[in-house]
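To the structural biology subgroup,

Please find below the input and predicted structure for AMP-binding protein, which we are adding to the shared reference set this quarter. The sequence is reproduced verbatim from the submission form. If anyone notices a discrepancy with their own records, reply to this email rather than editing the shared folder directly, so we keep one authoritative version.
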Amino acid sequence: MFDLGTSFMASAARDPDALAIVDGDVRLTYAHWLDKISSLVSAFDGMGLKAGDHLVTVLQNRWEAASLHWACQFAGLTITPINWRAKPDEIDFVLENCDAKAIAFEAVASQSMTESQRAVAIPRIAVGADAGRAELTFAEMIAVAAPVAKPRVAADALSLMLYTSGTTAKPKGVPRRHRAERMAGLAHVAQNLYGRGERTLGVMPLYHTMGVRSLIAMSLIGGVFVCLPRFDVTRALELIEAEGISNLYLVPTLYHDVVHHPRFAQTNVSSVRKLGFAGAPMTDGLLGQLTDAFSPELFVNHYGSSEIYTFTINQKAAEKPGSAGKAGLNQLIRVVKLGAKSAHEIAAPGEEGEIVALAASDEAFEGYWKRPEADAKSLRDGWYFTGDTGYFDADGDLYVSGRVDDMIITGGENVSPVEIESCLSLHPGVLEVAVVGLPDERWGKVVVAFVQRKGAVTAEELDAHCKATGLANFKRPRRFEFVKAIPKSPVGKLLRRQLVAGEFEPESSGSAAA
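Predicted structure (tokenized):
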């Protein structure tokens, strides 16, 4: 298989004059972008960086970040992107953990860089104006023309290391090889039915697997990656219309914000023909709203992870709400009994259990970075234990019900928060909702719904809605908390743990019991 450097070189040879990347006033064809990337590779040599070294980046979704990503593929460096909001101690952890040889950052991260104890000990690359003190700037690196870069590593070399978000422990490094990254990109093209010259909104962070997948997928088809450095609904709508965006690949939260924005109705979004989402389940209510708003030709629910990119695909997400579909092109999926020690303890159809994926997938990683205890927990019998709960229906389609850790056990019954959230999302008075289990002396845990209201709705009305839709009595929330906002991560994932910890801002009217 091609390494990613060769892959990009082939794309530039095939479509040299095709537009490749857009970022404000920057508009580069594949040929011109390859020139910039080649200059970066030459600059890496001048810094003394060698194949196998880690380059950490603390950047938003700008063309410089995408260029550094591709330059690393040519040079054989392992690009290690982290959240641009990272705190000094978080930067220090990553720098030490991966033994980074250099770091690139921009102004938004300059304060954390200044306070980082380890960043000062390695070469720093400042990206953009006012980034702060550094040994080298990105502008200096691309200012010197260089011969067209030649790929230096094979497909088995490491391409990328992402860090999973830590909750109670330090984040885990997920190293991925060129062949796995390219195969995941190819599968992404096939499963989303992308055609030549597609245009995507590059807003999912390049420190997140969804952002990286969009970047690679566009390169494979001579497509355009339109940068949106950080999510802003108004700017996103402007770019969709101005750049003729043809596909969107976002987490549900961002779709929610787009379709509910006051300017959405005045924006021409007719160029968008394909929708895809991942990262979290999408409520039935939002599925319906997006279908009405975009009338897409294809609406894909992609279920996967940083470790093994694709688990399952549902290409008709709106027709079977909640279904994650069937195994992707490079995958085999099972559901095993909750608490199973082996991948051979298979759950019956309709029985909720833990979802496991075959670790031999062409898209898969091979183990966490320096974390043997995490490998022992997640990799068993040649299968990857996802930590997600779900079940197969009578048609063999997978439904993802939540996380093993999020399962609410109330009065001895297992309750999935996702099912309750989908039910409540269909009420017109609900803007967003999150469900958790909170400690209770009698029941162990009780089901509590945190609701951001769209209209004047009461706890009693929401409880009546749950009854009317047939939600089982033991699944109905015993309490409703009305909040100003549902807490989410930087990439839009719901942070249930903050709700459990009481880290939320209530509405002035407070809470109500059902």
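Summary notes: Residues 407-513 form a domain with the GMP Synthetase; Chain A, domain 3 fold (CATH 3.30.300.30). The chain has 15 helices and 27 strands.

Regards,
Lab coordination
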